[in-house]
Amino acid sequence: MSSSAHRDTGHDHATAGPGQDRLWSVQEHLDDVLATVRPLDPIELNLLDAQGCVLVDDITVPLSLPPFDNSSMDGYAVRVTDVAGASEEFPAVLEVVGDVAAGQADPVTVGPGQAARIMTGAPLPPGAEAVVPVEWTDGGLGEGPVAGMRARSLAPEGARGHVHVYRPAEERAYVRAKGSDVRSGDRALSAGTVLGPPQIGLLAAIGRGTVRVRPRPRVVVLSTGSELVQPDEQLASGQIYDSNSFALTAAARDAGAIAYRVGAVTDDADTLRSTIEDQLVRADLMVTTGGVSVGAYDVVKEALAHVGDEDEPGGGVDFRKLAMQPGKPQGFGSIGPDHTPLLALPGNPVSSYVSFELFVRPAIRTLMGLPDVHRPTVTASLAADKALTSPKGRRQFLRGSHTEGSVTPVGGSGSHLVAALAHANALIVVPEDTESVEPGAEVEVVLLG
User: Fold this and answer.
1) Burial of residue 196 (number of CB atoms within 10 Å: 0-12, 13-18, 19+)
2) In terms of DSSP bridges, do strands 43-46 and 161-165 run parallel, antiparallel, or are they unpaired?
3) 362, 373 in Cβ contact below 8 A?
4) What distances in angstroms separate CA 19 from CA 229, 280, 292, 341, one per listed residue?
5) Rounded CA gap, 135 and 120, in Å?
6) pLDDT for 243-266, tens place per residue?
7) What is the radius of gyration, based on Cα positions, of the chain?
8) Element (DSSP H or E) covering residue 389
9) pTM
10) Alpha-carbon distance 197 to 206, whole Å?
11) SS3 of 197, please?
12) Tens-place pLDDT, residues 296-334
């Protein structure tokens, strides 16, 4: 499937020159990403395959729900006049003319002095005006009120004989009216709706087996670094476990994508370039982590710096410095014949995760065709023992724990503190022009949960 992404932002995406030296704002970088990414083309999917996808068209109800008057109780379908004034002392005695079960094609007809034993969901038979619950009757046993019906397989004679009714019933009592849920011609679901279990259930209930949606985007997550080892393997000297690819793959799935995790690639530009090319076949969006800074082994920059410069006009990847902390080094562009969007994130765990929340998650939500692609933000009171400091000219994102209008910093500002990130449910935003935030001050908070 095509992401329909193309380069039309007007930015110069050369990999050298003044554009690389200047400091981009967070908003400029985000605007560039969202101006490039386009919603995926709609496809028709079976209902269960459409779970988590965004509906493209309004859905109109072709038939009313329920499609016929039906019973909301197990009991007896009766005429109102036949049970008027009924009591335990003077019960109404009615002839039972048969059973009405759910799915029954030809229900019996209820005439004067008659009743039909009826099951929940079964259509109200002709002639009947109300349903009396079985608990208001003797169940045809002649031994006073009962708690329930005997199974038809055990007592088929219960569909015949007589029943004593001990309470009167008003017209339409315990009858679910045709169209009381939705009526034919009503709008069942609006375009833009994310299809969860209740929505899929509604579509099935009105007879839709397939639906036209924007598919969940396929996101490939790839981490780089010769020092990275997969969990459960033995660490050698100087090695660490690859956590970024797991965190970002999980984050992509949480955002609504179908995410594929690629094992860590060593610090070799040719290997990385060929791995990325191999993965393009299953990617609507590619995300790399690590190798975007200014070190001698930052291979993402080396591998992608000139991709698309000649063979793919309009393609290529920019590597930028953003006025933010953490996450200053970033890369963004498009690669491959379909101009698949690629976001290159820094390698420190907190930097990569914050960058994902700010840039990748909105890109995924845009690919899905959602109107609102951002996390919710609120204002909260800073609960801290001392003032927060922030570098001038940088927008800082600190981990926080938010509850009931208050937010408490979690851990320090270090971009490697992954344990603190695991205990945070929000990001505290300190603007570029603010160098200190006192306890009790109102701060902007991005809610992650």
Assistant:
1) exposed
2) unpaired
3) yes
4) 35, 27, 16, 19
5) 14
6) 889 999 999 999 999 999 997 887
7) 32
8) strand 388-389
9) 0.80
10) 14
11) helix
12) 556 777 777 655 444 555 568 888 999 999 999 999 999
